[in-house]
Design a protein that fits this description.
This protein has 353 residues and is mainly alpha-helical. 70% of the residues lie in helices and 1% in strands. A two-stranded antiparallel sheet has the order 1-2.
Amino acid sequence: MLIFILIFGIVATLFSLLLNGLFIKFSKNLGMRNIDENAVRWGSKSKPALGGISFFLNFLFAITFYFMLSKEHGLLENVKFTGLLLASTVGFLVGLADDAYNTKPLLKFSAQVLCGVILCLTGTYIQLFSSLFLNYIITIFWIVGIMNSVNMLDNMDAITTSVSISIIISALIVLAYLDNFNNIEFITLVGVLAALIGFLYYNWNPSKIYMGDTGSQFLGVLLGAIAITCFWNTPFDTQVHAQTKQVILTIIVFIIPIIDTTTVTINRISRGQSPFVGGKDHTTHHLSYAGLSDRQVALTMGTISFFSCFITIFILNLSDWSLLIACILASYILIVFGILFYITKTTKAPQAK
């Protein structure tokens, strides 16, 4: 099975490279970004924002590959994954509509809430409280939050792509730890990972293509749902203080999008601005104002995010989870947040000449 998965991963990566190459070659105005001077995107050149389509196609390719090898007779046998497929499709479609028509914020938010509701009703929800209602509420809040965080983070070349790759690798580590190599979630994540790797080739600075809202909304749903399965509801954990382990592990894996969104929200509210209006005031932008090149910013954010993979391995191999370990890891989160937040307070955008 592992050999088949490896072959599939290679084929899916090549498929992603081919798709994005074709998108770049044949795209004209469809999905273009930064056509007008008021665009808030970091780059100044118009580029196709079609990468998200390749993510979704690879996602469907992975599902097809799984059913070709498995003994399952239909998708409806797996209610949870059917919910994930439906929610991801809604995310993909609302992102596609936003890229094409710039949909109203209320419609976009309603679709994000719908994604969370679909997941809850099909059994994918955060099991943190004894109350099912509270679990549903925090699940919807989590899905909407991650969809917006991933979308907001997609503001410079390769940032969201590399961060998403590290999150998927962490999820694969957990599934491998549980010996779930041949379930549909593992195969699907390999397919999306391959899509991101193929896309990264074109998205690395200087990028030739963006993922657009099509990609960020799809990834937001998928990553948010997988986080519930692999990090929030850790099935191997029956230890004392398990809830702190769930929360800390999840935050560490999603450390970059969570810190970036939190920092931007705090800074904008303190300035009397809406946190939902785009701008060049993200942690990534301020790293650039501090003197880092776009590639160095991507490497910095990617390194922090990939470090979470090693912390995931460390947590999985802990024989005992204690409050001391929780405090040490929480301190790491606060240190990273403090550094990035401090940079946003001490750097300013260069004045236009």
